[in-house]
Each structure stands twice: as structure tokens, then as C-alpha cells.
Write a structure and sequence with these properties.
alpha+beta; Ribosomal Protein S8, Chain: A, domain 1; 7-stranded mixed sheet
Length: about 350
């Protein structure tokens, strides 16, 4: 079913308000979910709404958090999110990092006691639209086995980098350290679909394209030990460094309904003019053009830089509407009836 995003956004916002969230926090959360769908990443969109609401009802997400910001210096801040929904904590965090960078040229913000924050892309986009360079890190529940081990410990721990381009489409590279993100597997399980070959093993260490078996088993990292090492790095900088859970202790938002997640995030924001002045815009355009002019491999019509595909999806979905699978629509309608 195709649904226009404005009406859907209002409905999702209303669902969060019915669950006790403030209008401001509900708007931030609903925008993040709808943006995921618009950018063509439903793995982080409507299929997760029921989970967020369930955690709110069980008081594992604090709908009235007392978020504390400790300013360590003009450039560095530490945030205790007080078990806020991740969208709100991360939104406050990236805005603080941007503000710090605008003052001093550099902004570093660590966040603890947060939750799943959706796509790193959203937060990177906020910085890039202010003509700032940015890195975003967040850790996650166990999904990837450290290289040489058989048990999942690290999350799919994404790494995101953004850089302004001087046009409407920024350069934003957002990737998980696993072959596919866990949201794709969760959504496939919900819709009764298979997952691609070569992305997961079952609990016995055998390759599987069954999402239920993949969730009980392990996801495969990108590039074997290199991906495992990157996931470990993110666990350190987003978890250990910020004071959040790490080393396999981040709670799974779907399967562990006993405690808050205590996810950690880290944002690094820098003025790209620090070394070469305003010349950075002409240089990034030159850099991108050099890549786009390269000879194309078979079946490739156009070389895209990171971020272009998401914006193409956004434009198409904004015009045509968001396609909602039947069972997810049923979940939304049931949540909308909650009082």
C-alpha cells in the first residue's frame, strides 16, 4: 500500500504521543522513522515502530528523560541521555557537536545511556548542511562474532562520514560493519522473506538465508578480520569511551525486554576549512568529478558518490509515497488504536 509521507508522519507522531511522549520528542522520532523509509532504507523505518512502543510501555525507554550535558571544554561535551529514545539523544548530541565546532573549529560529543538511533545518515546530514565535516559512530547489540570466535559479541556497529559538496546532495558514506545491517534481517523475518546468501551463519556455524536462524546465529562482517576489527573499534569509541555498555553488553531492543539498552554514540564534527580555507569546496568538486569521469565497468551507467542513491530514493518516494507491507500496516493501525 502506497501512503503519502505527510499523513503517515502525522500518524506515527500521534502514536508516540499516545504512548506518553512529548510533542517535540514525538516529532523528532517520527521524522527519523519516515526519513528512513523515504531514503529507501525500510530496515530502519516502520518495521521498528512496534519495538519502540513496546519498550516505552515496559518503561525501558524513558519518555520524560532528564538529559544532562557536561561541557568538558568549548569543543568537548559528554551527554547522559537518561535512557531516552535514541533519536532524541542523538539529535541533541549532533546539534551540540555542531555548535562546538562552529565556535572552535572542532566538536566532540560522547553520549551514554541512549538507545537505537536509526540511521547515522540523519545526524551526518545535519552537520554537512552547516558546511561541516563529520564522523558518526554508534555501537549495537551482539551480532558479529570477533574474528576467530564462534559467538556474536560486537554489534553491526556503523561508521558514517560526511563532507559538504557545495550542492544539494552532500557526500555521506554510511555503512554497517556487517555484510548487511541487522534491520534488514529483522524486517525479512517479519515479512517472511529470505536474506541473501553469504551474510549470516546459523547457531551451528552453517551458512543460512533464513532470517530466524541468522538472528540466533551470527552475522558475517565485511572483509573478514578487517570488518571484525572495525566493529571492535566502534565498540571502543562509541561504547567504552563514552561510558555506555560495550563488549557484548548492549541490550537487544527486540529480544531483551528486561533492561534499557545503554547504547553509546560518538560524534566528531570539524570545520573543513581548517587547513585549506574555503578552497575545500572547489577541491571536493574536483575530487568527485575525477571519479565520475573514470571509465565505467560493465552494466554501470553512472558512477555515484555516497549519498546520491539515497537522495534519488528520497525524491522518488516523496513523490510516489511510501510502500507499506500489509502486516506492518496492521501493526501501525493497532498501535494507533492504543490508549
Amino acid at each position: 500500500m502506497k501512503t503519502k509521507c505527510y499523513k503517515l508522519n502525522q500518524k506515527i507522531k500521534g502514536i508516540f504521543i499516545k504512548h506518553g511522549m512529548s510533542r517535540i520528542h514525538a516529532k523528532i522520532s517520527s521524522n527519523a522513522i519516515i526519513q528512513s523509509e523515504l531514503f529507501g532504507l525500510p530496515s530502519h523505518g516502520l518495521s521498528r515502530l512496534k519495538m519502540y512502543c513496546e519498550r516505552i510501555k515496559r518503561k525501558l525507554i524513558n519518555i520524560k528523560p532528564k538529559i544532562k550535558i557536561k561541557n568538558i571544554s568549548q569543543s568537548i561535551s559528554h551527554i547522559d541521555a537518561n535512557n531516552s529514545i535514541g533519536f532524541v539523544a542523538a539529535n541533541i548530541g549532533i546539534k551540540k557537536a555542531i555548535k562546538n565546532a562552529q565556535k572552535t573549529g572542532f566538536g566532540l560529543v560522547g553520549i551514554k545511556n541512549s538507545g537505537h538511533y536509526g540511521l547515522s545518515f540523519f545526524y551526518a546530514e545535519q552537520a554537512v548542511k552547516k558546511n561541516l565535516m563529520v564522523w558518526c559512530f554508534t555501537n549495537a547489540p551482539p551480532a558479529i562474532a570477533p574474528y576467530g570466535a564462534r559467538k556474536a559479541l560486537f554489534g553491526t556497529n556503523p561508521i558514517c562520514f560526511g563532507f559538504p559538496t557545495g550542492n544539494k546532495i552532500p557526500f555521506i558514506f554510511d555503512m554497517s560493519t556487517s555484510m548487511i545491517n541487522r534491520g534488514i534481517i529483522r524486517r525479512a523475518e517479519k515479512l517472511g522473506l529470505k536474506i541473501p546468501d553469504g551474510v549470516a551463519l546459523d547457531k551451528n556455524g552453517k551458512p543460512t538465508n533464513n532470517p530466524k536462524k541468522a538472528i540466533k546465529g551470527v552475522q558475517l562482517p565485511i572483509a573478514q578480520f578487517k570488518g571484525s576489527g572495525l566493529a571492535w573499534m566502534v565498540d571502543i569509541v562509541a561504547g567504552l569511551l563514552t561510558g555506555a555498555n560495550h563488549g557484548g553488553n548492549v541490550k537487544d531492543p527486540f529480544d531483551n525486554l528486561t533492561k534499557p539498552q545503554n547504547v553509546g554514540h560518538l560524534f566528531i564534527v570539524i570545520k573543513p576549512s581548517i587547513f585549506i580555507g574555503k578552497n575545500y569546496l572547489s577541491q571536493i568538486k574536483k575530487n568527485i568529478n575525477n571519479v565520475k569521469r573514470l571509465p565505467k565497468s560493465n552494466k554501470i551507467k553512472r558512477i555515484l558518490y555516497p549519498g546520491e542513491k539515497k537522495y534519488m530514493n528520497y525524491k522518488k518516494n516523496l513523490k510516489n509515497g511510501i510502500d507499506i507491507p500489509k502486516n506492518i500496516l496492521e501493526e501501525i493501525n493497532k498501535l494507533n488504536a492504543f490508549k
